[in-house]
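Recall from the previous lesson that a structure prediction takes nothing but the amino acid sequence as input. Here we apply that procedure to Apolipoprotein acyltransferase from Paracoccus benzoatiresistens. The sequence below is the only information supplied.
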Amino acid sequence: MIVIAAAIIGAFLGWRRAVQLGGAPRDRAQYAAAFAMAFAVLGLFATVIVDRMI
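The prediction returns the following tokens.
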């Protein structure tokens, strides 16, 4: 669940960042995808850490 939430939050933040920079729709999609992947990896690490604590 952490991975999915992180990916959605990352996509939103990436889209917002591209809008702030004045990007075209393709730029916005690329930023959203890149941020979503990066946040998903961080969420995966967080999931593993939380799972190992229990």
